[in-house]
From TrEMBL:
Catalysed conversion reaction: guanosine + phosphate = alpha-D-ribose 1-phosphate + guanine; inosine + phosphate = alpha-D-ribose 1-phosphate + hypoxanthine; 2'-deoxyinosine + phosphate = 2-deoxy-alpha-D-ribose 1-phosphate + hypoxanthine; 2'-deoxyguanosine + phosphate = 2-deoxy-alpha-D-ribose 1-phosphate + guanine
Pathway it works in: Purine metabolism; purine nucleoside salvage
Protein name as annotated: Purine nucleoside phosphorylase
EC number: 2.4.2.1
SUPFAM superfamilies, sorted: Purine and uridine phosphorylases (SSF53167)
Residue ranges the record marks as coiled coil: none
Keyword annotations from UniProtKB, A to Z: Glycosyltransferase, Purine salvage, Transferase
Lineage start: Eukaryota, Metazoa, Chordata, Craniata, Vertebrata
One Pfam family recorded for the sequence: PNP_UDP_1
GO biological process, one term: purine ribonucleoside salvage
Amino acid sequence: MEAAFSSSQCSYEEYKETADWLLAHTEQRPKVAIICGSGLGGLADLLADKTVFPYQDIPRFPTSTVPGHAGQLVFGRLQGRECVCMQGRFHFYEGYNIHTVTYPVRVFFLLGVETLIVTNAAGGLNGSYNLGDIMLIKDHINMPGFAGQNPLCGHNDDRFGLRFSCMSDAYDRELRALAKQTAKEQGCDGFLQEGVYCMLAGPSFETIAECKALQMLGADAVGMSTVPEVVVARHCGLRVLGLSLITNNVVSDYDCVEKANHEEVLRTAQHRTQDLQRLVSHLIAKI
Ligand SMILES: *[C@@H]1O[C@H](CO)[C@@H](O)[C@H](O)[C@H]1NC(C)=O
Protein backbone atom coordinates (compact mmCIF):
# COMPACT_ATOMS: atom_id res chain seq x y z
CA MET A 1 0.00 0.00 0.00
CA GLU A 2 2.69 2.50 1.00
CA ALA A 3 4.62 2.04 -2.21
CA ALA A 4 1.65 3.26 -4.23
CA PHE A 5 1.85 6.59 -2.38
CA SER A 6 5.57 7.06 -2.09
CA SER A 7 6.35 9.16 -5.11
CA SER A 8 3.71 11.60 -6.24
CA GLN A 9 0.29 13.19 -6.21
CA CYS A 10 -2.93 11.28 -6.69
CA SER A 11 -5.33 11.91 -9.56
CA TYR A 12 -8.94 13.01 -9.22
CA GLU A 13 -9.97 9.54 -10.38
CA GLU A 14 -8.07 7.90 -7.51
CA TYR A 15 -9.80 10.00 -4.84
CA LYS A 16 -13.07 9.38 -6.66
CA GLU A 17 -12.54 5.64 -6.64
CA THR A 18 -12.15 5.70 -2.86
CA ALA A 19 -15.15 7.99 -2.36
CA ASP A 20 -17.39 5.97 -4.69
CA TRP A 21 -16.46 2.74 -2.91
CA LEU A 22 -17.41 4.28 0.45
CA LEU A 23 -20.66 5.70 -0.93
CA ALA A 24 -21.51 2.24 -2.23
CA HIS A 25 -20.77 0.63 1.16
CA THR A 26 -22.71 2.95 3.45
CA GLU A 27 -25.97 4.79 3.17
CA GLN A 28 -24.79 7.57 5.44
CA ARG A 29 -24.07 10.92 3.81
CA PRO A 30 -22.21 12.90 6.46
CA LYS A 31 -21.74 16.66 6.15
CA VAL A 32 -19.17 16.70 8.96
CA ALA A 33 -15.84 14.88 9.10
CA ILE A 34 -13.67 14.63 12.19
CA ILE A 35 -9.97 13.78 12.23
CA CYS A 36 -9.06 12.39 15.65
CA GLY A 37 -5.60 13.17 17.01
CA SER A 38 -3.24 11.17 19.24
CA GLY A 39 -5.18 9.56 22.08
CA LEU A 40 -8.39 11.28 20.94
CA GLY A 41 -9.80 8.48 18.82
CA GLY A 42 -12.37 7.71 21.55
CA LEU A 43 -14.67 10.22 19.92
CA ALA A 44 -15.43 7.71 17.19
CA ASP A 45 -16.56 5.18 19.82
CA LEU A 46 -19.38 7.54 20.82
CA LEU A 47 -21.01 7.32 17.41
CA ALA A 48 -24.37 5.59 17.12
CA ASP A 49 -25.41 3.42 14.13
CA LYS A 50 -21.76 2.85 13.28
CA THR A 51 -20.31 1.55 10.05
CA VAL A 52 -16.60 0.87 10.47
CA PHE A 53 -14.06 0.54 7.66
CA PRO A 54 -10.51 -0.46 8.61
CA TYR A 55 -8.18 1.59 6.43
CA GLN A 56 -6.69 -1.49 4.81
CA ASP A 57 -10.14 -2.45 3.47
CA ILE A 58 -10.70 0.88 1.70
CA PRO A 59 -9.42 1.05 -1.88
CA ARG A 60 -6.38 3.33 -2.21
CA PHE A 61 -6.55 4.47 1.43
CA PRO A 62 -3.22 4.68 3.29
CA THR A 63 -2.77 2.77 6.58
CA SER A 64 -1.75 4.06 10.04
CA THR A 65 1.35 2.97 12.00
CA VAL A 66 1.39 4.91 15.32
CA PRO A 67 0.37 3.39 18.71
CA GLY A 68 -2.77 5.18 19.92
CA HIS A 69 -4.09 5.40 16.35
CA ALA A 70 -6.63 2.72 15.51
CA GLY A 71 -6.65 3.15 11.75
CA GLN A 72 -10.27 3.07 10.73
CA LEU A 73 -12.94 5.25 9.20
CA VAL A 74 -16.10 5.32 11.26
CA PHE A 75 -19.43 6.55 9.92
CA GLY A 76 -22.25 7.15 12.39
CA ARG A 77 -24.32 9.65 14.32
CA LEU A 78 -23.14 12.02 17.01
CA GLN A 79 -25.98 13.82 18.79
CA GLY A 80 -28.21 12.73 15.90
CA ARG A 81 -25.95 14.25 13.24
CA GLU A 82 -24.33 12.04 10.63
CA CYS A 83 -20.58 12.31 10.63
CA VAL A 84 -17.49 10.43 9.59
CA CYS A 85 -14.50 10.04 11.91
CA MET A 86 -10.93 9.23 11.05
CA GLN A 87 -9.73 7.17 13.97
CA GLY A 88 -6.01 7.51 13.34
CA ARG A 89 -4.44 10.00 10.95
CA PHE A 90 -1.40 9.91 8.69
CA HIS A 91 1.66 11.81 9.75
CA PHE A 92 4.42 13.16 7.58
CA TYR A 93 6.96 11.76 10.08
CA GLU A 94 5.77 8.23 9.39
CA GLY A 95 7.35 8.60 5.98
CA TYR A 96 4.21 9.28 3.97
CA ASN A 97 4.52 11.95 1.35
CA ILE A 98 2.53 15.11 1.99
CA HIS A 99 -0.15 14.16 -0.56
CA THR A 100 -0.80 10.88 1.19
CA VAL A 101 -1.09 12.62 4.56
CA THR A 102 -3.98 14.66 3.15
CA TYR A 103 -5.54 11.93 1.00
CA PRO A 104 -8.63 11.45 3.21
CA VAL A 105 -9.58 15.13 3.10
CA ARG A 106 -10.30 15.11 -0.63
CA VAL A 107 -12.17 11.86 -0.18
CA PHE A 108 -14.34 13.63 2.42
CA PHE A 109 -14.95 16.45 -0.03
CA LEU A 110 -16.09 13.94 -2.67
CA LEU A 111 -18.36 12.28 -0.10
CA GLY A 112 -20.18 15.62 0.26
CA VAL A 113 -18.62 16.70 3.56
CA GLU A 114 -18.82 20.47 4.16
CA THR A 115 -17.18 20.89 7.55
CA LEU A 116 -13.93 19.41 8.84
CA ILE A 117 -13.13 19.22 12.54
CA VAL A 118 -9.49 18.45 13.29
CA THR A 119 -8.18 17.55 16.72
CA ASN A 120 -4.63 16.99 17.85
CA ALA A 121 -2.40 16.67 20.86
CA ALA A 122 0.01 19.58 21.06
CA GLY A 123 2.77 21.01 23.19
CA GLY A 124 2.00 24.28 24.93
CA LEU A 125 4.38 27.12 24.05
CA ASN A 126 2.32 29.88 25.63
CA GLY A 127 3.39 30.30 29.26
CA SER A 128 -0.18 30.89 30.39
CA TYR A 129 -1.40 27.49 29.14
CA ASN A 130 -1.89 24.54 31.49
CA LEU A 131 -1.69 20.83 30.76
CA GLY A 132 -5.12 19.66 29.67
CA ASP A 133 -6.18 23.02 28.23
CA ILE A 134 -8.13 22.87 24.98
CA MET A 135 -6.92 25.38 22.41
CA LEU A 136 -9.18 26.53 19.62
CA ILE A 137 -6.90 27.00 16.65
CA LYS A 138 -7.19 30.58 15.42
CA ASP A 139 -4.41 30.36 12.85
CA HIS A 140 -1.41 28.24 11.98
CA ILE A 141 2.23 28.43 10.99
CA ASN A 142 2.99 25.90 8.28
CA MET A 143 6.65 25.21 9.00
CA PRO A 144 6.91 22.25 6.58
CA GLY A 145 5.33 24.57 4.00
CA PHE A 146 8.22 27.00 4.56
CA ALA A 147 10.47 24.09 3.67
CA GLY A 148 8.63 23.24 0.45
CA GLN A 149 6.31 20.56 1.85
CA ASN A 150 2.92 22.02 0.99
CA PRO A 151 0.27 19.47 -0.04
CA LEU A 152 -0.93 21.81 -2.80
CA CYS A 153 2.44 21.73 -4.57
CA GLY A 154 2.30 20.10 -7.97
CA HIS A 155 -0.41 20.01 -10.60
CA ASN A 156 -3.60 21.83 -9.53
CA ASP A 157 -6.91 20.12 -10.30
CA ASP A 158 -9.58 22.83 -10.55
CA ARG A 159 -12.24 20.31 -9.61
CA PHE A 160 -10.84 20.55 -6.06
CA GLY A 161 -9.96 24.24 -5.89
CA LEU A 162 -7.97 27.22 -7.10
CA ARG A 163 -4.25 27.21 -7.86
CA PHE A 164 -3.55 29.88 -5.22
CA SER A 165 -5.54 29.16 -2.12
CA CYS A 166 -6.40 31.77 0.51
CA MET A 167 -5.36 30.81 4.04
CA SER A 168 -6.01 34.02 5.96
CA ASP A 169 -9.45 32.69 6.91
CA ALA A 170 -8.47 29.03 7.39
CA TYR A 171 -10.14 28.56 10.76
CA ASP A 172 -13.79 29.50 10.47
CA ARG A 173 -14.73 32.44 12.67
CA GLU A 174 -18.34 31.34 13.08
CA LEU A 175 -17.36 27.81 14.10
CA ARG A 176 -14.92 29.21 16.64
CA ALA A 177 -17.66 31.40 18.10
CA LEU A 178 -19.92 28.36 18.25
CA ALA A 179 -17.19 26.35 19.98
CA LYS A 180 -16.72 29.07 22.59
CA GLN A 181 -20.43 29.23 23.25
CA THR A 182 -20.65 25.44 23.49
CA ALA A 183 -17.67 25.33 25.85
CA LYS A 184 -19.45 27.76 28.12
CA GLU A 185 -22.60 25.64 28.12
CA GLN A 186 -20.62 22.49 28.83
CA GLY A 187 -18.57 24.07 31.61
CA CYS A 188 -15.35 23.73 29.61
CA ASP A 189 -14.65 27.43 29.18
CA GLY A 190 -12.34 27.52 32.21
CA PHE A 191 -9.72 25.64 30.25
CA LEU A 192 -10.49 26.81 26.71
CA GLN A 193 -7.79 28.83 24.99
CA GLU A 194 -7.54 30.29 21.52
CA GLY A 195 -4.22 30.52 19.74
CA VAL A 196 -1.80 29.79 16.95
CA TYR A 197 -0.73 26.23 16.15
CA CYS A 198 2.65 25.64 14.58
CA MET A 199 3.37 22.42 12.75
CA LEU A 200 6.81 20.88 12.68
CA ALA A 201 7.53 17.76 10.68
CA GLY A 202 8.77 15.75 13.69
CA PRO A 203 9.24 13.02 14.79
CA SER A 204 11.89 14.44 17.13
CA PHE A 205 10.47 16.91 19.64
CA GLU A 206 11.62 20.54 19.62
CA THR A 207 14.96 21.71 20.96
CA ILE A 208 14.97 24.52 23.50
CA ALA A 209 16.27 26.96 20.89
CA GLU A 210 13.49 25.90 18.51
CA CYS A 211 10.85 26.44 21.19
CA LYS A 212 12.17 29.92 21.88
CA ALA A 213 12.11 30.64 18.14
CA LEU A 214 8.51 29.43 17.79
CA GLN A 215 7.43 31.52 20.77
CA MET A 216 9.02 34.55 19.13
CA LEU A 217 7.11 33.78 15.92
CA GLY A 218 3.85 33.96 17.86
CA ALA A 219 2.99 30.28 18.14
CA ASP A 220 1.00 29.17 21.21
CA ALA A 221 1.16 25.43 20.59
CA VAL A 222 3.31 23.09 18.54
CA GLY A 223 2.60 19.69 17.02
CA MET A 224 3.30 17.36 14.13
CA SER A 225 0.00 17.24 12.26
CA THR A 226 -3.19 19.04 11.23
CA VAL A 227 -1.82 21.82 9.02
CA PRO A 228 -1.55 19.80 5.77
CA GLU A 229 -5.11 18.51 6.19
CA VAL A 230 -6.39 22.03 6.86
CA VAL A 231 -4.61 23.45 3.82
CA VAL A 232 -6.19 20.81 1.57
CA ALA A 233 -9.60 21.23 3.22
CA ARG A 234 -9.56 24.98 2.64
CA HIS A 235 -8.44 24.46 -0.94
CA CYS A 236 -11.58 22.46 -1.65
CA GLY A 237 -13.81 24.85 0.28
CA LEU A 238 -14.48 22.94 3.51
CA ARG A 239 -15.09 24.94 6.66
CA VAL A 240 -12.55 24.06 9.32
CA LEU A 241 -12.56 23.95 13.09
CA GLY A 242 -9.32 22.96 14.81
CA LEU A 243 -8.87 21.93 18.45
CA SER A 244 -5.57 21.21 20.17
CA LEU A 245 -5.41 19.41 23.48
CA ILE A 246 -2.38 20.73 25.34
CA THR A 247 -0.85 17.47 26.50
CA ASN A 248 2.63 18.63 27.44
CA ASN A 249 4.45 21.85 28.13
CA VAL A 250 7.41 22.27 25.87
CA VAL A 251 10.75 22.85 27.51
CA SER A 252 12.04 26.33 26.76
CA ASP A 253 14.42 26.76 29.66
CA TYR A 254 17.93 25.31 29.78
CA ASP A 255 17.69 24.72 33.55
CA CYS A 256 14.59 22.57 33.23
CA VAL A 257 15.08 18.82 33.72
CA GLU A 258 11.70 17.83 32.20
CA LYS A 259 11.77 15.94 28.91
CA ALA A 260 9.14 15.64 26.20
CA ASN A 261 7.79 12.13 25.75
CA HIS A 262 4.93 10.46 23.90
CA GLU A 263 3.64 8.62 27.00
CA GLU A 264 2.96 11.91 28.76
CA VAL A 265 1.05 13.07 25.69
CA LEU A 266 -1.15 9.96 25.69
CA ARG A 267 -1.72 10.15 29.48
CA THR A 268 -2.89 13.76 29.41
CA ALA A 269 -5.00 13.09 26.35
CA GLN A 270 -6.77 10.34 28.28
CA HIS A 271 -7.42 12.67 31.20
CA ARG A 272 -9.14 15.49 29.24
CA THR A 273 -10.37 13.45 26.34
CA GLN A 274 -13.92 13.20 27.72
CA ASP A 275 -14.25 16.97 27.96
CA LEU A 276 -13.00 17.39 24.42
CA GLN A 277 -15.37 14.70 23.17
CA ARG A 278 -18.30 16.31 24.93
CA LEU A 279 -17.41 19.68 23.45
CA VAL A 280 -17.15 18.29 19.92
CA SER A 281 -20.34 16.27 20.06
CA HIS A 282 -22.43 19.14 21.39
CA LEU A 283 -20.87 21.44 18.86
CA ILE A 284 -21.74 19.10 16.00
CA ALA A 285 -25.39 19.22 16.96
CA LYS A 286 -25.29 22.98 16.23
CA ILE A 287 -23.48 22.95 12.90
C1 LIG B 1 -0.84 33.46 25.54
O1 LIG B 1 -2.20 33.23 25.80
C2 LIG B 1 -2.87 34.31 26.39
C3 LIG B 1 -4.28 33.83 26.75
O2 LIG B 1 -4.94 33.34 25.64
C4 LIG B 1 -2.85 35.49 25.41
O3 LIG B 1 -3.48 36.60 25.98
C5 LIG B 1 -1.41 35.83 25.05
O4 LIG B 1 -1.40 36.83 24.05
C6 LIG B 1 -0.71 34.60 24.52
N1 LIG B 1 0.65 34.87 24.13
C7 LIG B 1 1.67 35.12 24.94
C8 LIG B 1 2.99 35.36 24.31
O5 LIG B 1 1.55 35.15 26.15
